[in-house]
Structures are given as structure tokens and as C-alpha cells.
Amino acid sequence: MQSKLWRIGTRGSALALAQAYETRARLMAATGAPESAFEIVVIKTSGDRILDRPLSEAGGKGLFTKEIEEALLDGSIDLAVHSSKDMPTLLPDGLAITAFLPREDVRDAFVSPVYHSLAEMPAGAVVGTSSLRRRAMVMRLRPDLKVVEFRGNVQTRLTKLQSGVADATLLAHAGLKRLGLGHVVSQVIETDDFLPAVGQGAICIESRVGDAATDALVAHLHDPQTGICLAAERAFLAALDGSCRTPIAGLARIDGDGLRFDGLILKTDGSEAHTIARQGAVADAARIGAEAGQALKAVGGPDFFG
């Protein structure tokens, strides 16, 4: 075990590195291997380089995974650590998601140096976000607010807030907690009011198909309940052909032997929204998600996201 150097690919943001370090720590604890058995390989992605326009205009979700996946395919790294919500539903041939770490908090956090909640903001106040989902949901709940584009990593967005670019922003509570920044949160928004992105709060591991040694290694990390929930959520997203270009939210939760799935699609300006709730057996997670996606696609019609 200790004779092999395992190369872990990741983006270079503080949050991405925190997720890679968590993965390494879990692997060390599970295998008894020393830290020196694992090399963190930082890979700059297109999404990190393109900061002058919304991701929806630049190419969508794959912008945060493309270069990392190329490194996996050419053998430069053995496994990749991703935020599950960044992962396209269709992966390159030869690659697969092989493990999910235990999921963190799925909720969105409202962050503002001025206001305590989204509801407290006065008409005309400015919310900054780079997420089409968050933009659409804010405009649905508070059409009297102004929403502006807000790219950059977590620290960059917090700096923009302090400099007055916006009065508030919305970030994943899980990411703030992983960065030790829980103290900046003004309000954690419940999922009944603000359904999260598919995969939010979950870290996934991607590796090469047929790489038995890496499969055996990352098996130590896999959380079955998270895997079941993500199977439903990713099937929902796939049924809707979802990407960063479409405002989609979805959340699966396990209760005993059952699974509940809630989904939402919105017009980009928040003017129209459709929700769905489905329940069934845990074993049917992927089918439940796919059927929910197909049902919403039928309700919205072919031009809904146009």
C-alpha cells in the first residue's frame, strides 16, 4: 500500500483543496497509509480561467471538470475529487464516479454584511450570484430585488460583498463549513423555501473504468446513502438535459426504506416554476429521479428553458 504514490487531482481553489485534503485524510484513516502516499495535484480548469462572463455563456458544468478528466484519461492522476454539483450527467468514455463521501449540509446560505435574511432586504437591494438556479429562485421569491452576476471563488465573492458590489449573496452552506467560514452566514435557508442544486453538499470521486486498484482504494470512502440520493438526483438532471444553462433544483432524502425526491424547474427570470414530489423504495432511486425529470419536462414543454 505504501509503495504506491496515489495522485489526487483537484482544482486549486481553497474549497477544492479543502475537499481534496478531506479525501486524503479519510483515505489515510481507512488504509493506514501515511500522508506521503498521496500527492495532491492541482489542475487549473477552464471554469477557473473564464471569469469575465457567466458560465452559462461559456459552456456550462464541464468547464470545472474537463482538464481534470483529461489528466485522468492520460494517467497523470489516479483519482479526481469534485463537488458533485459541478459534474455533468454525461461523463467521458472510460471515466466513472466511483465514490461519494458522506454528504454535508445541502442547504443554501444567505450571506450579507447588512441584512439578516432574504426576506428582510428592501426593494431594489442587490443580490449577487453566478448561479442561474439561485438567480431564478431569488427573482421568483423577491421580484423586487436586483440580481447581478457574481463570479469568483468563495473568498472573492465575500470580498466583493465587503466592497459593496452587492448587498448579499447566496452560497452553499456546505462549502462555507468546509472552509471554516460558517460564521459569515446570516441565514441558512431551509430547503422548503430554497431547493438546492443537484448534488449540493456532496463530494464525489471520479476515476478510470476498470482501474481495479483505485476502485479498491476509493471503496473505503463510499457512503451508500449519499450514493443512493445522488443516483436519484443525477437521473433527474439527466432526464431534463440539465446543465449550468438551466435553472434546475433537486433533492433526494432517505427515510427508513423509502426515498423522497423533490424537484423544481424555473424560467430564468423566475416568472414561471413547476415542482414535483415523488416517493418510492430506496432500490428504485434512479428510476424515481428519472421519472420526476420526465414528468417535469412534459409539464414545462420543449421551450420551457428557451
Automatic annotation (TrEMBL):
Pfam families: Porphobil_deam, Porphobil_deamC. GO terms for molecular function: hydroxymethylbilane synthase activity. The keyword Ligase does not apply. One of its GO terms (cellular component) is cytoplasm. Its EC number is 2.5.1.61. PROSITE patterns: PORPHOBILINOGEN_DEAM. The modification S-(dipyrrolylmethanemethyl)cysteine is found at C244. Residues 7-214 form the Porphobilinogen deaminase N-terminal domain. GO terms for biological process: protoporphyrinogen IX biosynthetic process. It catalyses: 4 porphobilinogen + H2O = hydroxymethylbilane + 4 NH4(+). Keywords: Porphyrin biosynthesis, Transferase. Pathway: Porphyrin-containing compound metabolism; protoporphyrin-IX biosynthesis; coproporphyrinogen-III from 5-aminolevulinate: step 2/4. InterPro entries: HemC, Porphobilin_deaminase_cofac_BS, Porphobilin_deaminase_N, Porphobilinogen_deaminase_C, Porphobilinogen_deaminase_C_sf. It is an enzyme of class 2 (transferase). SUPFAM superfamilies: Periplasmic binding protein-like II, Porphobilinogen deaminase (hydroxymethylbilane synthase), C-terminal domain. The keyword Transferase applies. Tetrapolymerization of the monopyrrole PBG into the hydroxymethylbilane pre-uroporphyrinogen in several discrete steps. Belongs to the HMBS family. Monomer. PANTHER family: PORPHOBILINOGEN DEAMINASE. The porphobilinogen subunits are added to the dipyrromethane group. This is Porphobilinogen deaminase. It comes from Prosthecodimorpha hirschii. The lineage of its organism: Bacteria, Pseudomonadati, Pseudomonadota, Alphaproteobacteria, Hyphomicrobiales. The gene is hemC.
